[in-house]
């Protein structure tokens, strides 16, 4: 009976892993490729239910078989990643990796990445080679919990089994909907349980023998799956979207007896990819991370082919020499063999607690000069943070002019530069988080479930917290303007890490400021230095680092043009900071040199450079 479904299951696995792979490669039209994980969840729900009900074995044996299937390849991946990270990663990024190590082999990485607020869709995920293991952890948690439910279900008839499974599905789907768009609904099992249940329910439904109907529904479901992968975005995900993908996958599993559909699935390449799908899923993401980490240029077509080729070869080796090898041995031999891998792994993990600094000497790129440079950068970053904590208000008694710097961490650079200038103006800094314009423009719009938990359990709402934070920041700005008084000259300097959404909602800021007599200057999105840490680490000299920054920096011309139009439409002043950072005619700008360090990371200034910039233009 297993062979009956093997062809279709392997084809679905192939579709799932290819989708995730292409999404991680940022291939155009595959923005929804992350939905491949939801396909895997439905497959797992079906196969685990099938395995438990068709094989009457002790639950402990079931757990061991699942661990035998999942753990060996994962351990080998972690060990290889450990070696690569230790040899090549920047110390900041290697520390992040070492922290994630404590949770991955124990299948708790989904909790770790949720607690540490690691956004799966954020560019910073390129420093986390084990980020994708959150879904492996989720599946193993399902392996552990679901058999306990099955023990109860085995005692009742099929109709009652279906009732309880549908009940669990609806509870989970309700949670997924109520917490839509929140990180816990992405990473945690209660919100994803409905996706596993879709596959599980399939096992108890009587199969259709109508080949035409089977072909029609399975092909339509497959078509809708592919369309979803090509069109869905991560907005309000998983919610109903994740459930829909698992439902379509379950339709294919259920209506799988059509000859035409089987012939479509029974392709050698598709079947082979399905066969190695677990290893391919495990290895493709770290390979992408490592390749991009070591490649300072923008990824091109040839790079994509190289990444795909390396991933396929590595996955085939993993499947043949790890997965198959461990699958063939019995439970006792497995325990004897795996314990040595586990001992080695846990020695390495615990060594990172005490010997992180010791591992630095094995870093391929680090030398005495680099270590000193990293110390200097760290010191300059600390100096900036410490000075900002003090927030030195520069107040001159009876001063006529007052300058308020408002915005995120980019605004703090401007403020710290201004406070170092000797003049007779008062300077203030009021922080404002990114997205506040959008949050405040929507008003105090709480999610239904947060209103409920606030009333019933007196639980603080996350969106309420964000709203009040933004509200108070604006209130602080308005209170300061009122405190200064109408008879004083007030200038507001607005500086942000601008993006499309923030520019779109900038009108909210101007509407709030219209009632005050203020002079507003909006500063452009500043030049950023992609792959800052990797460039510093890999370059042979500081001069080469600066040269690479000059080749790769981003000026954001189009975005700044949109910002400028928006600012001028609201009768405010626009200041292009980038022409002072690096004039367009200049082919060799200074970003980082031994005695002239201007950037402490990809987007923030040193205190010295902030001061130097403020002296260059008269916004004060």
Which percent range fits the helix content? 55-70%
Number of strands: 7
Number of helices: 29
Strand arrangement, major sheet: 2-1-3-4-5
The 3D shape can be described as: globular
Secondary-structure class:
mainly alpha
The residue ranges in which pLDDT falls below 50 over 5 or more consecutive positions are: 456-462
| Gyration radius from CA atoms, angstroms | 28 Å
Mean pLDDT: 87
Task: Note the main sheet.
Answer: 5 strands, parallel
Instruction: Work out the strand percent.
Output: 5-15%
**Overall tally of domains:** 2
Query: What's the end-to-end separation, in Å?
Result: 78 Å
What's a quick, concise take on this entry?
With 620 residues, the protein is mostly helical.
Which key phrases capture this entry?
620 residues, mainly alpha, Rossmann fold, 66% helix, 5% strand
What can you see in these coordinates?
The chain is mostly helical and 620 residues long. It has two domains: 2-360, no CATH class; 392-528 and 555-581 and 605-614, Rossmann fold (3-Layer(aba) Sandwich), CATH 3.40.50. The chain has 29 helices and seven strands. The strands form two sheets. Strands 2-1-3-4-5 form a five-stranded parallel β-sheet, sandwiched between helices. A two-stranded antiparallel ribbon has the order 6-7. Helix 3 packs antiparallel against helix 15 (301-328) and helix 9 packs parallel to helix 11 (239-254). It starts with a helix and ends with a helix.
């Amino acid at each position: 009976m297993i062979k009956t479904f093997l062809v279709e299951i392997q084809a679905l696995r192939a579709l799932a892993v290819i989708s995730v792979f292409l999404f991680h490669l940022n291939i155009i039209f595959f923005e929804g490729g992350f939905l491949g994980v939801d396909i895997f969840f439905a497959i797992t729900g079906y196969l685990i239910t099938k395995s438990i009900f068709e094989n009457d074995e002790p639950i402990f044996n079931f757990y061991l078989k699942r661990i035998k299937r999942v753990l060996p390849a994962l351990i080998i991946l972690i060990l290889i990643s450990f070696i690569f990270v230790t040899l090549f990663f920047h110390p900041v990024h290697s520390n992040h990796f070492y922290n994630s190590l404590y949770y991955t082999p124990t299948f708790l990485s989904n909790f770790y990445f949720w607690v540490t607020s690691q956004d799966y869709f954020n560019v910073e995920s390129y420093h986390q080679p084990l980020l994708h293991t959150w879904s492996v952890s989720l599946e193993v948690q399902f392996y552990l919990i679901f058999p306990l439910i099955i023990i109860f279900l085995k005692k009742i008839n099929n109709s009652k089994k279906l009732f309880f499974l549908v009940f669990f599905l609806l509870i989970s789907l309700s949670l997924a909907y109520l917490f839509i768009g929140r990180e816990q609904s992405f990473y945690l099992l209660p919100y994803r349980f409905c996706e596993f249940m879709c596959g599980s329910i399939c096992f108890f439904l009587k199969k259709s023998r109508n080949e035409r109907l089977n072909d029609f529904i399975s092909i339509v479901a497959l078509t809708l799956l592919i369309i979803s992968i090509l069109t869905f975005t991560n907005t309000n995900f998983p919610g109903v979207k994740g459930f829909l993908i698992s439902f379509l996958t379950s339709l294919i599993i259920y209506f799988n007896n059509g000859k035409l559909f089987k012939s479509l699935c029974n392709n050698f390449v598709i079947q082979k990819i399905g066969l190695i799908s677990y290893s391919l899923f495990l290895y493709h993401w770290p390979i992408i991370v490592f390749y991009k980490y070591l490649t300072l240029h923008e990824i091109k077509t040839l790079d994509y082919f190289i990444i795909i080729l390396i991933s396929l070869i590595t996955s085939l080796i993993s499947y043949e020499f790890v997965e198959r090898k461990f699958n063939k041995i019995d439970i006792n031999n497995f325990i004897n063999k795996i314990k040595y891998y586990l001992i080695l792994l846990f020695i390495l993990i615990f060594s990172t607690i005490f010997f992180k600094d010791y591992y630095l000497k094995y870093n391929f790129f680090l030398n005495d000069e680099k270590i000193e440079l990293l110390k200097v950068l760290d010191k300059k970053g600390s100096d900036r943070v410490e000075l900002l904590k003090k927030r030195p208000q520069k107040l001159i008694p009876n001063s006529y002019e007052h300058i308020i710097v408002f915005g995120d961490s980019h605004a703090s650079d401007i403020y710290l530069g201004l406070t170092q200038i000797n003049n007779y103006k008062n300077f203030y800094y009021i922080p404002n988080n990114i997205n506040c314009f959008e949050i405040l423009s929507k008003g105090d719009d709480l999610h239904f479930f947060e209103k409920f938990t606030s009333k019933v359990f007196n639980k603080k709402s996350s969106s309420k917290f964000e709203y009040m934070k933004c509200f108070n920041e604006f209130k602080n700005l308005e209170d300061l303007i009122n405190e200064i008084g109408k008879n004083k000259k007030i200038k507001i300097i607005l500086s942000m890490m601008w993006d499309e959404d923030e520019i779109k909602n900038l009108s909210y800021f101007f509407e709030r400021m219209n009632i005050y007599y203020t002079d507003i200057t909006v500063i452009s999105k500043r030049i950023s230095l992609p792959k800052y840490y990797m460039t510093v680490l890999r370059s042979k000299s500081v001069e080469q680092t600066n040269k690479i920054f000059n080749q790769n920096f981003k000026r954001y011309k189009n975005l700044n043009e949109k910002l400028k139009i928006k600012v001028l439409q609201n009768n405010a002043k626009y200041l292009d900071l980038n022409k002072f950072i690096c004039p367009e005619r200049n082919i060799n700008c200074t970003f980082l040199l031994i005695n002239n360090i201007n950037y402490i990371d990809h987007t923030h200034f040193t205190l010295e450079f902030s001061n130097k910039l403020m002296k260059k233009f008269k916004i004060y």
